[in-house]
Predict the 3D structure of the following.
Amino acid sequence: MVDIGAIRCPLFVPANRPERFAKAALSGADAVILDLEDAIAAKDKDSARGALRCDFTSLPVIVRVNAIGTTWHMHDLAAVAGLPLAAVMLPKAEDPAACAAVARLTGKPVIALVETALGLAQARAIAAAPGVVRLAFGSIDFCADLGCAHTHDILLPVRLELVLASRLARIDAPIDGVTVVLDDPAISQADAGHARTLGMTGKLCIHPRQIAAIRAALGPSPAETDWAHRVLASGDGAVTLDGEMVDEPVRVRARAILAASS
């Protein structure tokens, strides 16, 4: 059983480019997402579906299918049902019952991609739907749907809601959306760092150049790890460390940091 919650840096690859599959698996990503949706022109949907495979890697393989209501959706579900995938990624997730149906029809866990106003309004119910194991944020589509700017401050409440929805449903923390800038890894790192401060634990990648920077941002820094060790060595009850109070909630945070660094 693949631990979907442990995935931090999944990399998208167009499903109609099988010559790129193995390269994606060797890029440093910790999962590969074969994309049947946005990366594929309508005329290429059928051939892309026929190119799906999982035998190119031991990493988790995820397939992003086309959205519910499209011409291709049910054909995609039939195709992925026969593959040993780690999960199915469902775009434009808006209906909890429909998300559960995708899990039931494919026999695969579902990563629900929230990228519309309705999807956000239903995020808590979607996170709790049977078969949904994780939420992901389709931030570019979300901004297009609402007509808002794609900035940290504007999207702050959206990301927090996805984190809260995941926690309430007791599923793993969500995966943040893509950074569209490809030639400056520092921007990917800053975006991933921002997502991490809000409680997200993964970020969708669209180019191998982004992966190392995102990995660095999503993991604890040496200073955080050192702090966590010192907190756990400080004893029990309420104590003072570096001029600040340490009690059990602080130790819970310290344990989480060390778990993330292992």
Notes: Residues 24 and 32 are 7 Å apart (CA to CA). Residues 224-261 form one domain.
